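Troubleshooting log. The previous run stalled partway through. Resubmitting the same two chains, unchanged.
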Amino acid sequence: MFDICKEARYNRGMISEEKLSLLTESAKYDVSCSSSGSGRKNEGGIGNGYASGCCHSFTPDGRCISLLKILLSNDCVFDCKYCVNRCSADAPRATATPEEICELTMDFYKRNYIEGLFLSSAVHRSPDHTMEQLLLTVKKLRTEYRFFGYIHVKAIPYADERLVNETARYADRMSYNVELPSEKSLKLLAPQKSKASVLLPISKLAREKEIFRAENRKGKFLPAGQTTQMIVGASPEPDGQILRLSQRLYRGAGLKRVYYSSYVPVVRDPLLPDVPGGALREHRLYQADWLLRFYGFSAEEIVEDDGNLSLELDPKCAWALRNMHLFPVEVNRAPLELLLRVPGIGARSAYKILEARQYASLDFVHLKKMRVVLKRARHFITANGKFYGAKSDAAVRGLLTAGERAQNAEQLSLFAAENAAAALTGEL
Amino acid sequence: MIYFYDGTKEAFLTAFLLAWGDREAVFASQNAQLSLGQTCTFVRTDAAAAKRAEQRFLSFDKESMRDLGTMLRSGDANRDAVALAYFRLLAEKKRPVRGMLADDAVRAADECMRRVGLEIHRFHGFLRFMESASGALYAPFSPDNDICDLVAPHFRARLGGYPFVIHDVKRKKAAVCDGKTIFVAPLERAEVALSADETEWQSLWKTYYASVNIPSRERLKQMRGYMPVRYWKHLTEFR
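Second attempt completed without errors. Output:
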């Protein structure tokens, strides 16, 4: 009886629970799960884009489920030292068919479980074969199943350019993993990958998108752009070098996001460190990354070439303390660019202040009622000429570090339960 | 004086005109606590007067009627007072007041509308459809605010021609879409005969939900912050 059921399931193209669970387990450490940036319209099928992105559920680890994150196969020919799916690992392997992925996506989407598909794969047989299968799957989904929801496809290093470019016609977003921030580390830890195999295709794909736009061709080409991800702490690169690379990717290749995942030793190898990269460092990198993208900072302002970010202070505080001659600023007059540089004032608060001060001169009571967080900001602003910060620069530094320390003590304890099986990648 | 009205835009505007000059006015569309010596009146909608008030408010602020609609959807016990204070300010200033965030009335209204908007956005994600034997989709939910017809257009655009029902179990009403038009109807209870595959897809979703979690990194507080427990009742992954 059981076998007959299974048979029937297979004929309908419904994936088995075992396979689904195996291919999800292998994909779950991937950091990205965003579904924003695409305004794709429903052209007579099912699904559309949601420009701001949409979370459909949250798992007990606090992460959101937006996309159906799954591998087409976890059967890899590469042997990256840090990876759970590397070919030398003794792990159960599975490969799904394009139909199984399509059916699963359609039926999950229809029930509003997911916002779209995040399709990735181990390098199965060869890069070209894998890319072909990924292309086949998304093409089927778009043309046969008439699916217009969000699709993120991971690009496979060394795969033929033509395959990648064709995939880009069907996907909303693609990503190559940079993995490690320098050629030297790649050689050591991911022997089959090189800087040329990851950075070059990123800029090629960006150029292809520009050509597509310039020629005004019909259809779409990665409306939500490209992203990438880097493992931090498995290799010795300092934060300065990492952020400079991110800046280059943002400015040069128009990347939408760089994800950082702090290294956690899942695999023991003499080439890999035994200690985890630390969640706090990852957190600081994300803070710095936000400063690059939304706050008008450059990597050079945030951290020196071969330096690391301060763990004690967030990068904006650290910058402000190095530039005390610019402060305090008057909230009723300061331009947006400067408001955004005040520690503790985020983009939302800055815009609120801009709006509210057109009608009334703002004092500290107003700011507090408007939910502008003043714990850090009060040392760097005046409101209606009044200043409520500490008297000297040294005192400000002392207060800020003490505040951070209290916060971090709590923050670190959250991660204390993490053990080796917990992931290479992490999201804050 | 307490002004009881039925919670519609027209009744609110009628009451607004009646209460003009009454600085002690209290608006109530739900249950209200009567205190000794307080008088009350039941406002009967005057369509012509409401229309006049609407035109006037629109001339002050083009978005004012949309804002009023949003505020009256709120499930917050204070919403009538919040709306009254906001519209009194608008009538006094005779120009958009949305940006005056230093003012208490504006901030309260802003907060109230933000909550409704946030819940609509949340249910774009948290609504769960089940497929019935006829192929129509059915989603029960119990939102804090009265939003079933406000979440429906999103799903109409997305689901192509699929007919669907979004059932507000708490308010016993439903937004029904036949694939093209949406209408709201009272609905006490729905019996849904599920399609042949439905339970299998539900069980696959539960498998997925369990597999994608990283158990060693438990952060339940964060999870509940993003997805409040009161919404879990209708989520497939917890049933």
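Takeaways: The first strand of chain A starts at residue 57 and ends at 58. Confidence is low (pLDDT under 50) at residues 1-10, 410-428 of chain A.
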